[in-house]
Design a protein that fits this description.
heterodimer; A: 111 residues; mainly beta; seven-stranded mixed sheet; four-stranded antiparallel sheet; 11 strands; 56% strand; B: 112 residues; 0% helix; globular
C-alpha cells in the first residue's frame, strides 16, 4: 500500500518554513526522502532508520515516529533551490527492501 | 565519473514491439533497481537486483524482464510493448540495500 504524503502541494515565500509528512499503514524499517525537479531524476535527501539512525544532508532535518509509522521532513528558511517535488519511499518490515513511494508533495518557492 | 547511465533518453515504440532499456553504473554498487514513474505519481519498483546473478520482482513486474550478468549492467526488457507501458523509466543503484540511491537521467518511453 502506498504511503500517504501531505500536503499534496505547498507554496511558500523565500525564507518561510515547511513540513512535509509521510504516513504508512504498515510497520516500517526505514523511510527515504528524495527531491525531484521537473524533468530531472530524483536526488537523495535523507534516510531515517528504525532505531533512530539517520543518513543524509546536514542542512535537511527529518523525524521518524516508529510507533505511528510516520515521518516528517522539515524545510527551514526555504530557498528558491528547494522548489520541486518531494517523495518519501517506505521500506516495510514485510517487504524484503522494496521501497514503496508516496505520490509526492509539490513545493513552490516564490521570491 | 559517469554515475548511472541510461540509454536511450527517448524512445517511441509501436504496440507489440520489444526493446531493451540499458542501465550501467561505474560505482561498483551491488544494489540496482528499475522504476517507472507515471504523471502525478510516485515511483513504482519494477525489478531489482542485490548483486550479479540475483534479481527479484518488485511491485509492477508484469511485461518486463531483467538480468544481471555483471555488477555494472542491469538491462530492462519490454517483451511486447503496450500503451499502458508509456512512462518514464529510471534506473538506480546503491552500495547495498538501505543506502542512498543514485538515479540515472531516465528514459522517456511512448508506446503508440
Amino acid at each position: 500500500q502506498q504511503p500517504v504524503q501531505s500536503p499534496q502541494a505547498v507554496i511558500l515565500r523565500e525564507g518561510e518554513d515547511a513540513v512535509i509528512n509521510c504516513s504508512s499503514s504498515k510497520a516500517l524499517y526505514s523511510v527515504h526522502w528524495y527531491r525531484q525537479k521537473h524533468g530531472e531524476a530524483p536526488v537523495f535527501l535523507m534516510i531515517l532508520l528504525k532505531g533512530g539512525e539517520q543518513k543524509g544532508h546536514e542542512k535537511i532535518s527529518a523525524s521518524f515516529n516508529e510507533k505511528k509509522q510516520q515521518s516528517s521532513l522539515y524545510l527551514t528558511a526555504s530557498q528558491l533551490s528547494y522548489s520541486g517535488t518531494y517523495f518519501c519511499g517506505t521500506d516495510r518490515l514485510d517487504s524484503n527492501y522494496q521501497l514503496i513511494w508516496g505520490a509526492g508533495t509539490k513545493l513552490i518557492i516564490k521570491p | 565519473n559517469a554515475g548511472v547511465t541510461q540509454t536511450p533518453k527517448f524512445q517511441v515504440l509501436k504496440t507489440g514491439q520489444s526493446m531493451t532499456l540499458q542501465c550501467a553504473q561505474d560505482m561498483n554498487h551491488e544494489y540496482m533497481s528499475w522504476y517507472r514513474q507515471d504523471p502525478g505519481m510516485g515511483l513504482r519498483l519494477i525489478h531489482y537486483s542485490v548483486g550479479a546473478g540475483i534479481t527479484d520482482q518488485g511491485e509492477v513486474p508484469n511485461g518486463y524482464n531483467v538480468s544481471r550478468s555483471t555488477t555494472e549492467d542491469f538491462p530492462l526488457r519490454l517483451l511486447s510493448a503496450a500503451p499502458s507501458q508509456t512512462s518514464v523509466y529510471f534506473c538506480a543503484s546503491s552500495p547495498s540495500e538501505r543506502q542512498p540511491q543514485h538515479f540515472g537521467d531516465g528514459t522517456r518511453l511512448s508506446i503508440l
